[in-house]
Amino acid sequence: MNSLDWTVLIAYFGVMIAIGLWSHKRVDNVSDFFTAGGRMPWWLSGISHHMSGYSAVMFTGYAGIAYTFGVTSFVTWSLPIAIGIGIGSKLFAPRLNRLRSRLHVASPLEYLKNRYDLRTQQALAWSGLLLKIVDVGAKWAAIATLLSVFTGISLNQGILITGVITGIYCTIGGLWADALTELGQFIIQLFAGIAMLVAVMGELGGFSALWTVWDKLPDGHASPTAGPYTVTFLLAFLFIKTFEYNGGMWNQAQRYMATANAREATRSARLSAVLWLVWPLVLFFPMWCAPLLVTAEKPDASDAYALMTEQLLPHGLLGLVIVGFFSHTMAMCSSDANAIAAVFTRDIAPTLSKAARTWSARAGLLAARLSTITFLALSMAVATQVNSPTFKDIITVVIKWVAGLMGPIAIPFMLGMLKTFRRSGPTAALTSWSMGLLAFWLVNYPINWNVSGGVPLQYQVSVPLAVSLVLYIVIGFLKPEDTPARDVLLARINGQGDGDGSGLTAESLKVPAQGTQATRGKHGKREDSGSSGG
């Protein structure tokens, strides 16, 4: 990097902070800080949802997969995410929006206290918080790895720089700052990604390289599945990402909650799905061609994209691409920080402190900002250890730990919104959560160490979610814990239309007679003044 590249990078940081300061005046209370007050346009929500879904790991860990295995990096990663979000656009996005618009919650997990009980809410909140600290730590390490390649600064210095800048804007402006910076980051990444694509095509013979390069690449580079990324892994990943990217890890849930109504949330999800289907192709093509242009120095080839960028791009454009690396990581980390702060201040803190239950609007907002700073600091500390023997490397944390542990946390949260699973109560939720975590530990450690060749990756990441899913459904069938109060809650989440759902009753779910007395007048007719259609 020279002075021109540094100018581009510093200007980017300055713009991000300026957006945070501008967003500050749009944040008056906790609802504004965590869900933008339900005023976010669907297109901004969709772009924000997409940008908050991946980080510099795309340009390190997944670039290494693309360098080594080729097309499978797209087929077994972004393609199933696009499909999963498309499924969730009707199944989860509108219901997540109704959590805010009808139940008036500011945290995705806030409804769990009434859907199940306090123990379930706390179990999911604490385990998800700890997992996210590790997950975001991996993201900081990824961007710091790239920064060290370009500038020569140490890993810890890179973590400190990116973490502090992100902390400033997302703490000041909340979700509004996250979404607006993500819009700016998307535009920057658009130009940076196209610049890299054009540079690679120019090096390999022009536009025709899109179809002529394949014969020159290593054998199997065009295969949809390769290495450990098999068809079974693809199906398992689709299964996992359908839950994760539709709100299972909370930050994406906030994007749907921030839109005005359920219909807007659906449109937001569809836009994000289209972006996941199309844009990664632009980013991945240079990575697939990397073996023809550079020789990776790291065993996992996570430095391939950075080396190629240095070799092909002139100064100025090099700075723009580096800014693109930062944009994804800062988008994802800031959105995670906001989600975790929401869960801590709205779900955990009121359980730990009586004072937190009666916070004023100003005190609640201060707690939200302090929680954001604390989470960022903890994740940065973890980032300094991401390459230790415990974590092994960045991609291990992202694929194995996050994908494997996400399921047990997401199953009770996501399926708890669907009326199909109304019989699954606290027993089903806590059992599926705890046994899913146990399954993750077993397949990744004791069993993995004692099986010749180890447990295949697809089973390491999918078994915990499968165990949680089966137990959640089976226990709900064997030990139903549906009550009239829970049925009314589900009716408000599942009821169609954009009203507040105040007139929806347990009968809206076509429940058995146990709930009819509370919803019928003295003449036996339904007293349903609210809109249940739409």
TrEMBL record:
PROSITE patterns: NA_SOLUT_SYMP_3
Pfam (any one): SSF
One annotated GO biological process: sodium ion transport
Cellular location(s): Cell membrane
Sequence segments annotated as region (Disordered): 497-534
Main location: membrane
A cellular component term, taken from the record's GO annotations: plasma membrane
Basic and acidic residues bias spans: 525-534
Coiled coil spans: none
Ranges that cross the membrane: 6-22, 42-68, 74-93, 129-153, 159-178, 190-214, 226-243, 273-296, 365-382, 394-415, 427-447, 459-478
Keyword tags: Cell membrane, Ion transport, Membrane, Sodium, Sodium transport, Transmembrane, Transmembrane helix, Transport
One Gene Ontology molecular-function label: symporter activity
CDD domains: SLC5sbd_u1 (cd11477)
Bilayer topology annotation: Multi-pass membrane protein
Family named by the database record: Belongs to the sodium:solute symporter (SSF) (TC 2.A.21) family.
Protein name as annotated: Na+:solute symporter
Organism: Streptomyces paludis
